Amino acid sequence: ARWPFLLAVAGLLCIAQVGNARADTPRDAPTALSISALPEGVDPAAAAVTGGLFDAAFRPLVGAAPYFAKGAARWYRLRLTADWRAHSVPLLIIHNARFQPVTLYLPGDARGQTQYHAQSGRDGRFSRRALVFELPRDLRAGQSLYLRVPGSVKATPFSVGIDAEEAYHVRDTGWVRVMTFFEAVQFTMILVGLTLWLALRERLYGFFVGYLVPQFLYLLVSTGDIYLLPGARWIEPLGVRLLWFVAALGTPFALSFIIEFCEMRRIAPRLARLLSWLRWPWVVLTLTSLLPMAWHAGNSLQPDVGNVLFLLCAVAAITAVAVAWRRGSVAAGIFLLAWIPQSVFTALRAAQVLLQLPLPGWLEFGLPAALALSSLVLTLGLGLSTLQTRRERDHARNEARRDALTGLPNRRALMARIAEALIDARQTHRPLSLIFLDLDHFKAINDRHGHLAGDACLRILAERAQSELRPADTLARWGGEEFVVLLPGAALDEASTIGERIRRRVEANPFVAGGEAIAITVSLGISGYSRSSVDSPEQLIEQADAALYRAKAEGRNRLAVHPAYAALA
Predict the structure, then answer these.
(1) pLDDT of residue 11
(2) DSSP string spanning 155-192?
(3) What's the whole-number mean pLDDT along residues 105-122?
(4) Which of 236, 361, 421, 564 is the most buried (most CB within 10 A)?
(5) Beta-bridge partners for 213
(6) Rg of the chain, C-alpha, whole Å
(7) pLDDT tens, 335-394?
(8) Domain-by-domain residue ranges, the chain?
(9) Would you state the pLDDT for residue 232?
(10) DSSP collapsed to 3 states, 439-497
(11) Per-residue model confidence (pLDDT) at position 6
(12) Residue 49 vs residues 39, 80, 473: alpha-carbon distances, Å
């Protein structure tokens, strides 16, 4: 149970690494940017803007952040407030641009450089946490940098800043370490779930893998690591639709997993039906997210409906799981522990998108951390569930091999034990004996004193016979009033001694029922293993049974030995 704790500590150390990088890295004095913008709806040609023809039309942004305007491209002009004098190259850092293509025009360059999150072939020196443009080292105050951002389905803010390459590299590396750790945790849990599913073939584990894989892909798309994989150029045209797709795909599996893992159909059937119906809107959203971008252009239906629907599903799911927990489901308690942090951070992320707010750093790290924690806790929960299932299976198997009245092994368990003992006797050349015993006049006891008294006699017989056996011996109920004792390593003389002790022990004390003493005695038949006459458990039982009938015929309450075994001795 230590490894989840160690993983959590490793995650905290990775997060601390980012803070240490920020605190310990020598940084050049920050250089401020002045930002101005053309009015919305004004989108001249790039050559006219970079040639300075529209400089007089730019208006300073005072106390406001730049943003992607709704439905129309917009131009921004960036200027340093002081000359760049740091020893390392200046970088223009744009956060929260996500999948929007942003074009930067440097002084004297009308061609422009375009970057976006899903772009293949980007500069490998930097992660995809932000769009990073390298600027001239000799950049001076007053020189204009022009930024063209496309229109969006809704006004969305982004941030722009200047940073030294060396300092940014250190912080970017820390961010990569943290995100890689979270991705590694998710991937490991997927492998665990996939292994369980392939081994056990239970749909619970299939839903678990279906729940984790879209989460993992969502993290890869968000960090941009998916675009580093081979063949990423084929998914580049999907842009933000890929993010919508994996986000929508995971929710039906999550709801299915909740229903199975928390046993909702048994504990809360109405809530289980509600969660089942909530899966279908997500199936529709998953399919529509793959439609061409022209279908999505000009409206925010897909993300807005998805975010609102997620908030509703989160409330319904947490309510259902809480009800199951209150009704005694341990799995539901584990799921609440795993899912509440994830739901809180996902809801905050959805609200941030809906309200068009900037993405704060704590939310940027908090969501993948919550996803990793959720997958880890749920995997532990599945392990506990698997262990409980195995215990219940073993218990059921033991109960199926045990007699309900006496608690002794039943005929099925006995035959398996005799087969093992015969193999051992053949291989080791050790003796093996078997006693078949029967309670005398059992029908008369039932007829005169009742079946409850008869059952009590059987239990007393089992207790008294068991008390005379060695630790390695096996006493089993064959059926009715018949019992069998298996004596590995015992030759005829020792088996006869044990049988006689059992006979005397049983008859020593009468059983009292309803104030009347009931005398109980047993007849016993002995057989044993010999290479010439016994080669199967059935033959061993048959010979002991024949000896038992001989003991009964001779007057009961006595012991008889099968002739073949007596001749061998």
Answers:
(1) 47
(2) -EE-EEEEEEHHHHHHHHHHHHHHHHHHHHHHHHHHHH
(3) 87
(4) 421
(5) none
(6) 40
(7) 888 877 877 887 787 677 666 676 777 777 888 888 888 888 888 888 777 777 777 777
(8) 31-157, 177-399, 411-568
(9) 84
(10) ECCHHHHHHHHCHHHHHHHHHHHHHHHHHCCCCCCEEEEEECCEEEEEEECCCHHHHHH
(11) 44
(12) 13, 18, 98
**Domain 177-399: which CATH number of 3.30.70, 1.10.1060, 3.40.50, 1.20.1070:** 1.20.1070
Copy the structure tokens of residue 83: 């000359």
Backbone φ and ψ for 147, nearest 5 degrees, come out as: -125, 125
Distances (CA, A) of 233 to 68, 121, 230: 25, 9, 8
pLDDT at 489 over 90: yes
Give the fold, CATH level 3, of 31-157.
Immunoglobulin-like (2.60.40)
At the fourth CATH level, the homologous superfamily of domain 411-568 is Reverse transcriptase/Diguanylate cyclase domain (3.30.70.270)
Element (H, E) at 512: strand 511-513
Query: What phi and psi, each to the nearest 5 degrees, are found at residue 402?
Result: -130, 145
CA-CA distance, 21 to 23, in Å (whole number)?
Answer: 6
* Tokens at 264, concatenated: 């909702």
- Would you state the structure tokens that stand for residue 127, as one six-digit string? 């992660």
Q: Which helix (H) or strand (E) holds 423?
A: helix 411-428
pLDDT of residue 12: 44
- DSSP class of residue 429 equals -
Token pair in block for residue 26 = 């020598």
Q: Check if the beta carbon of residue 533 is closer than 8 Å to that of residue 543.
A: yes
Q: Are strands 33-37 and 131-134 parallel, antiparallel or unpaired?
A: unpaired
CB 345 within 8 A of CB 363: yes
* Whether pLDDT at 568 is above 90: no
* pLDDT at residue 294 in the model: 53
- Contact status, residue 123 vs residue 241, Cβ threshold 8 Å: no
Residues 319 and 264: beta-carbon distance below 8 Å: no
Q: Does the pTM exceed 0.90?
A: no
Q: How far apart are CA 117 and CA 469, in angstroms?
A: 78
Q: Which whole-number Å values give the CA distances from 139 to 90, 136, 145, 160, in the listed order?
A: 8, 5, 10, 17
Pick from 2-16, 220-234, 455-469, 511-525: least confident? 2-16
In sequence order, what are the residues at sequence separation of 6 or more whose Cβ sits closer than 8 angstroms to the Cβ of residue 71? Answer: 151, 152, 153, 298
Tell me the pairing of strands 159-164 and 90-95.
antiparallel
Task: Say if CB 68 and CB 152 are below 8 A apart.
Answer: yes
CB 66 within 8 A of CB 80: no
Helices (H), 201-300: 203-223, 240-261, 264-267, 269-288, 293-296
Q: Rounded to whole angstroms, how far apart are CA atoms 21 and 29?
A: 16
Alpha-carbon dihedral of residues 293, 294, 297, 299, nearest 10 degrees?
-100
Is 148 a residue whose pLDDT tops 80?
yes
Q: Do domains 31-157 and 177-399 have the same CATH topology?
A: no
